[in-house]
Amino acid sequence: IQVGRTGVLTPVARLAPVTVGGVVVCRATLHNEDYIADKNIREGDTVIIQRAGDVIPQVVEVVMEKRGKDAKKFEFPDTCPECGSHALRETGEAARRCSAGLICPAQRLERLKHFVSRNAFDIEGLGARHMEDFRRDGLISSPADIFRLEEKAEEIKNLEGWGGKSAENLFKAIGARRAISLERFIYALGIRRVGRATARLLAGNYGSSKKWLAAMAAVAKKDSAAYGELTDIDGIGPGVADDLAAFFTETHNTDVVADLGRLLSIEDFADADIPDSPVAGKTVVFTGALEAMSRAEAKARAESLGVRVAGSVSKKTDYVVAGAHPGSKARKARQLGIAILSEDDWRRLAWD
Predict the structure, then answer these.
(1) Chain segment 160-188, per-residue pLDDT in tens
(2) How many domains, the chain?
(3) Phi, psi (rounded to 5 degrees) for 43
(4) How far apart, in whole angstroms, are the C-alpha atoms of residue 273 and residue 219?
């Protein structure tokens, strides 16, 4: 069982070495306990494997006629194999997760690897293998420790595979990442369900780390207004909002974020592609059946003009664009005194 950065327990099959597509394979993913049950996979089975997308080996099916009498059903653990904490499966989810969070050493290591990954801080010369080594040697325990590594220069220079020059290059690469964009910073934290697109969406809507962190603190305190503003962002549903709230509820997470804040310069969000448009920076809600284009097209064109498209109406909404049969969003806009535009009105304002 492997434990990922968000605590997911992933079963992995150990195989007798076999060549698949020119690559020797010894392990294959079994995804989750439902996958094992659906495929009726047991310990000791002979199986057919493939490399999904020519990359990840996975078990396709069991060769039933070769199943031995001693083939054992796999009992999926209800505790984390790394830290012993309860492994819980939420209703409607296939994954079972360790409940310990960053207290779990496996999750802590995987989040450290994620923090320095290509789409996060992308620190040259500091990859997953180095993170494993530094973690094992007690040089790093949290992301902020990366930016204190130069204080341990002598220890690093004396490690196997390191020397004065390589250590110096590493410290320069780390120094170059002390200034980081807000969207990369959010993504690097490894919050469940917050991928690159969601991180950029959050950065674009809150604009600065100060505003984002203040909003997340309020969401964590069950502030209904802050939670409502978060879920008003088109593309941020209750699931993502709840995961953000859960992350910022945990003291060890907020301590890490605060520690990083003292060491880094987190740059405000800047979209260089926003044109000089009269609607740039405005918040717009589309409602009803649009005639000239689909909802997805309207959203894409609005965003290309620097518009923030929201999924629901709030006091921060600037315009509601109403098609046929607009419903409750138009009613709420009228109650709040927000301008309601027809499709033609919107086109004249935004594009003409």
Answers:
(1) 999 999 999 999 999 999 999 999 999 99
(2) 4
(3) -65, 135
(4) 30
Query: Do 303 and 313 contact (CB within 8 A), yes or no?
Result: no
If asked whether residues 166 and 197 sit together in one domain, one would say no
Percent of the chain exceeding pLDDT 70 equals 98
CATH number at residue 147: 1.10.150.20
Is this prediction's pTM over 0.70?
yes
In 3D, which of 218, 199, 205, 219 has the Cα closest to residue 310?
A: 205
**Contact at 8 Å (CB) between 139 and 155?**
yes
Report if residue 287 sits inside a domain: yes
Query: Angle formed by the axes of helices 238-249 and 251-263, to 10°?
Result: 80
Domain boundary among 233, 267, 301: 267
Q: Identify the segments of the chain with pLDDT beneath 70.
A: 53-54, 271-275, 352
Q: Give domain status of residue 21, yes or no.
A: yes
Candidates 311, 188, 326; CA nearest to 247 is: 188
Which structural domain, as residue segments, surrounds residue 110? Answer: 103-177
